[in-house]
Amino acid sequence: MFDTIGSAFFDALRRAAERHLEHGHPCIEALGAAARGADSAAVAAAQDALAALDPAIMNALMAEAHRLLREDPARILGGWNPAGVSH
After folding, report:
1. pLDDT tens across 68-78, in order?
2. 10 Å Cβ neighbour count for 60?
3. 17, 50, 52, 55: which has the highest count of C-beta atoms within 10 A?
4. pTM, two decimal places
5. Maximum distance among all Cα pairs of the chain, rounded to whole angstroms
6. Residue 47, exposed/middle/buried by CB under 10 A (0-12, 13-18, 19+)?
7. What is the pLDDT of residues 41-59, one digit of tens each?
8. Cα–Cα distance, 2 to 7 (Å, whole number)
9. Residue 15's closest CA among 61, 84, 83, 70?
10. Beta carbons within 10 angstroms of residue 59's beta carbon
11. For residues 68 and 66, what is the distance between their CA atoms, to the nearest angstrom?
12. Are the beta carbons of 5 and 76 closer than 8 angstroms?
């Protein structure tokens, strides 16, 4: 479930970054990579890219990402498996 929800969260952050940052900004690619793979290296790179932003910009991205997720709850619930994790 974390991988799916993590992917949805990083995808929402990427969409927010595309609206707030200039085209080709490295943070957009880092967030996209985390959304696509959510492996630990991609997540760490995305976190580093976010931390390198001006705090006001990072806060704007977080606020918009949360708004995007609120407006599309099916995106989060799609990763939920009430029967538990299957291997």
Report:
1. 988 877 766 66
2. 16
3. 17
4. 0.78
5. 42
6. middle
7. 999 999 999 999 999 999 9
8. 8
9. 61
10. 11
11. 5
12. yes
